[in-house]
Specification:
This protein has about 280 residues and is α/β, with parallel strands linked by helices. Helices cover about 30% and strands about 25% of the residues. It has a single domain, classed as Rossmann fold (3-Layer(aba) Sandwich). It has eight helices and nine strands. Helix 1 packs across helix 4 and helix 4 packs parallel to helix 7. It binds hypoxanthine. Hypoxanthine (HPA) binds next to strand 5, strand 8 and strand 9.
């Protein structure tokens, strides 16, 4: 597996591809947009952009529905750095591409990060198209991007994870959703390695573990951002009932179709979170 884990040198090489003007921009918030969420900001005017292929170690996403570029945006007085498209561990390129966006945000001075994803519903009361604010996670994989030497700026050897997802940010985001008339569920996200969807037995196990949703992303970035000391928020778009719940077979096209149907409210929520960033810090 190429570059299993980022090194100080690989992180420096990636950061060197980011122009000085980006460091002067001082974004209030960093965002990583997952499956189907890219569309929500790609239509908006932007200040600058870098294709992932221009950032050494980041590379192009291999997954349909994941655009591959990072943009600077302005929304009123707020500034955001937005990674449109995410790399996943299951793509087989190691942790480098997965966590590089978080490291670039750290170097840009970002303290507040929003992670979005598509997820399957483990909780049978959720429905495709629902949005869910992640309050905590279960890492089912045993994988951890912090394994190995502690990288510069990445906190301590044994980071506390009592509040990975900031309770104060969660309160603000719930308020924003309520103002927009968007129903925002809350729940626990189970992280699986992918790329296969889960078995019904696995989903029953995750249900017993209190999980409400399941997906193949977000937790690695949240683990790193928390270790760095960022305020983390995460929102899932429920795209399907998890394996065994509805009896239907799962496909990536169903995931794409559900995010498409929910794209308008996803876009409004992301825009409101960006416009509100820095308020809570
Ligand atoms: N399982 C894992 N990841 C997912 C799912 C799912 O059911 N839906 C969207 N991403």
């Amino acid at each position: 597996m190429a570059e299993e884990r980022p090194t100080p040198e690989s992180l420096d090489r990636a950061a060197a591809a980011v122009p000085q003007s980006w460091f002067d921009f001082r974004p209030d918030i960093g965002v990583i947009l997952g499956s189907g969420w890219g569309r929500t900001v790609l239509q908006r005017p932007f200040v600058d952009r870098i294709p992932y292929s221009d950032i050494p170690g980041l590379g192009a996403s291999t997954v349909q529905g994941h655009a591959g570029e990072v943009r600077l945006l302005e929304s009123g007085a707020r500034r955001a750095v937005v990674f449109c498209g995410r790399r996943h561990f299951y793509e087989g390129a190691g942790w480098g591409p997965v966590v590089l966006p978080v490291e670039i945000m750290r170097r840009l001075g970002v303290r507040d990060i929003l992670l979005t994803n598509a997820a399957g519903a483990v909780n049978p009361s959720l429905r495709p198209g629902d949005l869910l604010l992640v309050t905590d996670h279960v890492n089912t994989t045993g994988l951890n991007p912090l394994q190995g030497p502690v990288l510069p700026g990445w906190g301590t050897r044994f980071p506390d994870q009592s509040e990975v997802y900031s309770k104060s940010r969660a309160l603000e985001i719930k308020g924003l959703a309520a103002d927009l008339g968007i129903t925002l569920h809350e729940g626990i996200y189970a992280f699986t390695s992918g790329p296969c969807f889960e078995t019904p037995a696995e989903i029953r196990a995750y249900h017993i573990w209190q999980a409400d949703a399941v997906g193949m992303s977000t937790v690695p970035e949240a683990i790193v951002a928390n270790a760095i000391g960022m305020h983390v928020a995460a929102v899932s778009c429920i795209t399907n009932m998890a394996a065994g719940i509805s009896g239907q077979r799962l496909t990536h096209s169903e995931v794409m179709e559900s995010t498409e149907a929910a794209a308008e409210k996803m876009g409004r929520l992301v825009a409101a979170i960006i416009a509100d960033s820095a308020a809570g810090i």
